[in-house]
Amino acid sequence: MSMNYQDIQAFIYREARLLDDREWDQWLACYHPEVEFWMPAWDDDDQLTSDPHSEISLVFYPNRDGLEDRVYRIRTERSGATMPEPRTTHQISNLEVLEADAQQIQLRFNWHTLSHRYRQTSSFFGTSFYTLDLSGGEPLIRRKKVVLNNDYIHQVIDIYQF
To answer: Which pTM was predicted?
Structure first.
C-alpha cells in the first residue's frame, strides 16, 4: 500500500473528525492492535520525559487495549473526565512527512483542540508524531506520541482532547 500527501492528510483529518463526532468504533479502527499511545510529561527542567516505562507520562498505553478501555469507560459513563461529555473541535496544521517507505510513514503535525464543558471552553495545543503502518489494506496508527504544550491545565484530560 502507498499513500501520497493528500491521502495522509485525509487520514489525519478523518481521525480528528471521528474524535469530534464520537465515532468511537471507527476511531479505534484507525489504530494497530500493538499501537503505542504516549503523551510524555514536562519535567521540572522544562524537558519532555523520554521513557514511558521509567518516567512519568500524562498518558501511556502500550497497546490498543488501553484505548479500548478508555472508550468503554466513556461509553458507560465510568469516566469522571468525561462527565459531562465535552464538545471538541480539532484543528490540524503543519503536516510533515518525516520518513516514508513501503511499510510505514513517520509524520508530525501541529494540533489545536477546543473543548467545551461546564459552560467553559478550554484550549489545548501541541504536536503529534505518528508512525503509520502500511502493511495491510488500510493505514493503521502504530505509534502516536502527543506533546501537549500547555500542560498547566485546570481539568482532567482524556483521549479526545488531542
So the answer is: 0.93
Longest Cα separation, the chain:
47
What is the helix (H) or strand (E) element at residue 12, kind and residue range?
helix 5-20
- pLDDT at residue 77 in the model: 76
Cell numbers for 145, please give them.
Answer: 506520541
Q: Where are the beta strands (DSSP E) in the chain?
A: 31-40, 57-61, 87-100, 104-117, 120-133, 140-148
* pLDDT per position as a tens digit, 9-34: 999 999 999 999 999 999 999 999 99
Residue 22 buriedness (CB in 10 A; 0-12 / 13-18 / 19+):
middle
Residue whose entry in the numeric block shows the C-alpha cell 489545536: 112
CA distances from 34 to 17, 62, 104, 140 (A): 23, 7, 14, 10
